[in-house]
């Protein structure tokens, strides 16, 4: 915000729904009294305002044109509600003096124009196949009207096949867009992320199969609107899988740097993932449940039950490139200092040089129920703490979670712990967690598959490497709720 816009002051008494309001605008905040008792004030930071416009009166006769009412204006804004959910709000103010109204409209619109980080031309992908197969309805009902109010020009593409989104993004000219978004589950988000990075490598002539190269950062930020079955990525970015919250974050334009993990076999690049790659139990579940998609999200319960009974453990050798520093028990919340510290490329590379010296490989061999490389906590509505509660979205590390082969009872304890609000799976005695930058896995004996962002990856022997904040995503991060911050607060985020 420029100094001029920061300094502007407005004070006018307006009417709204036959009630008089003293409305004040100063230092980037619009303030008015609450309509209903208790008589508190409503304060809306200009950063949360979506649009300001003169009111348009709808004609009494359908054949007449709507008319602009220069005596009233509407402020459209976003407000954080309870349970981490944001909601859309609006208020209409009227005044007998048109000059008063136009002065407010002009001043506020001038402020909004300084928010150049907000998307104007958005490329939107909708996956009609994922989740409950209602992504198009979700878009039409919850996203389209808000984008229209915000004046975002949205170009919608409905995917027709698996990998189409990835192919379109990686091979087409996207110069006319300033951002990309999707409505879908983790598989759809993963296609968008993979498409953008593959495209950037093509444009910058970077050999993506060479694990040692720095992968170039795509410039377009990505919006993630949940429309799948688990929606882990959306949940971890916003602390909720509420659609309106995700849409409002795209409109408001705040961005976070998200780590991505690149996965290779011995010779070439396989894919990038954003949430988790799991071998063993969850690999078996995704492979089995993919054949029962007709069941919808219930397929995970069905396959989960079948595969927990059938699990006999998988032998494997895991090597982790890890930091000597301790595994910090800090959760990743909004304004997380640990992630913000990695935001600046220069700072990141300086600390990288320092840390390179402290990085060491360790190798562990054993029999496992499940092996996971979690890039984020992987919390979702079903699992409020996720598989790796202390994994951060942009700190350049992943958490390798090893669940040792044990009894069926213990496996069930693990699943119950995953769905519980309190406690984490790390408290269980048969779980081992290693924080690292890279890991590789080699299967011994009978092999399972990997479940990468909810997609089947058939090659068992892989190498995975975290790419620190490779992408910008729309969001503010997971807001900490009172009970969470009072139990185990992030030492870094405080
Ligand atoms: N039109 C389509 N027909 C068939 N498959 C599609 C189509 N569009 C996208 N896909 C594929 O659908 C798969 C599932 O999508 P997605 O991951 O979004 O939903 P989900 O699996 O229900 O959700 P989640 O991953 O959150 O559990 C992805 O692999 C995606 O590539």
From TrEMBL:
GO CC, alphabetical: membrane
Biological process annotations from GO: ceramide metabolic process
Keywords: Kinase, Transferase
Residue ranges of domain DAGKc in the record: 117-267
This protein's name: Diacylglycerol kinase catalytic domain
GO terms of molecular function: ceramide kinase activity
Species name: Popillia japonica
Record-linked Gene3D superfamilies: 2.60.200.40, Probable inorganic polyphosphate/atp-NAD kinase, domain 1
Top-level lineage group: Eukaryota
């Amino acid at each position: 915000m420029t100094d001029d816009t920061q300094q502007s002051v407005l004070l006018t008494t307006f009417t709204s729904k036959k009630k008089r309001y003293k409305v004040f605008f100063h230092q980037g905040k619009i303030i008015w009294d609450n309509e209903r008792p208790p008589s508190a004030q409503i304060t809306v930071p200009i950063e949360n305002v979506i649009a300001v416009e003169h009111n348009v009166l709808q004609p009494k006769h359908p054949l007449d044109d709507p008319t602009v009412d220069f005596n009233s204006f509407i402020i459209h804004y976003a407000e954080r509600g309870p349970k981490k959910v944001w909601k859309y709000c609006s208020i209409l103010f009227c005044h007998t003096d048109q000059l008063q109204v136009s002065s407010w409209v002009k001043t506020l619109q001038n402020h909004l124009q300084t928010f150049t980080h907000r998307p104007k031309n958005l490329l939107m992908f909708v996956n009609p196949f994922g989740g409950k197969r209602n992504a198009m309805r979700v878009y039409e009902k919850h996203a389209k009207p808000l984008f229209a109010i915000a004046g975002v020009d949205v170009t919608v593409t409905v995917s027709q096949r698996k990998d189409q989104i990835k192919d379109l993004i990686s091979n087409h000219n996207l110069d006319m867009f300033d951002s990309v978004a999707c409505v879908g589950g983790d598989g759809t988000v993963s296609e968008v992320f993979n498409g953008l990075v593959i495209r950037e490598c093509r444009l910058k002539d970077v050999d993506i199969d060479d694990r040692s190269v720095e992968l170039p950062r795509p410039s377009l930020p990505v919006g993630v609107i949940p429309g799948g079955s688990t929606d882990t990525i959306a949940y971890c970015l916003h602390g909720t899988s509420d659609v309106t919250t995700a849409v409002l974050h795209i409109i408001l334009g705040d961005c976070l740097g998200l780590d991505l993990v690149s996965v290779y076999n011995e010779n070439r690049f396989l894919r990038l993932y954003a949430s988790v790659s799991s071998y063993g139990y969850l690999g078996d579940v995704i492979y089995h449940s993919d054949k029962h998609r007709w069941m919808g999200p219930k397929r995970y319960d069905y396959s989960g039950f079948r595969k927990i009974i059938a699990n006999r453990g998988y032998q494997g050798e895991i090597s982790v490139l890890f930091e000597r520093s301790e595994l910090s028990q800090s959760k990743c919340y909004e304004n997380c200092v640990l992630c913000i510290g990695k935001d600046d490329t220069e700072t990141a590379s300086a600390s990288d040089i320092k840390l390179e010296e402290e990085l060491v490989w360790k190798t562990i061999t054993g029999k496992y129920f499940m092996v996971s490389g979690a890039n984020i906590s992987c919390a979702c509505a079903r699992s409020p703490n996720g598989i790796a509660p202390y994994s951060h979205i942009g700190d350049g590390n992943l958490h390798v979670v090893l669940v040792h082969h044990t009894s069926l009872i213990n496996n069930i304890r693990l699943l119950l712990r995953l769905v519980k609000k309190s406690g984490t799976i790390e408290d269980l005695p048969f779980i081992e967690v290693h924080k690292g930058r890279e890991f590789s896995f080699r299967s011994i004996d009978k092999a399972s598959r990997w479940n990468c962002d909810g997609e089947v990856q058939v090659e068992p022997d892989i190498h995975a490497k975290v790419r620190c904040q490779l992408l910008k995503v729309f969001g503010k991060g997971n807001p900490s709720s009172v009970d969470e911050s009072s139990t185990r607060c992030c030492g870094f985020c405080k």
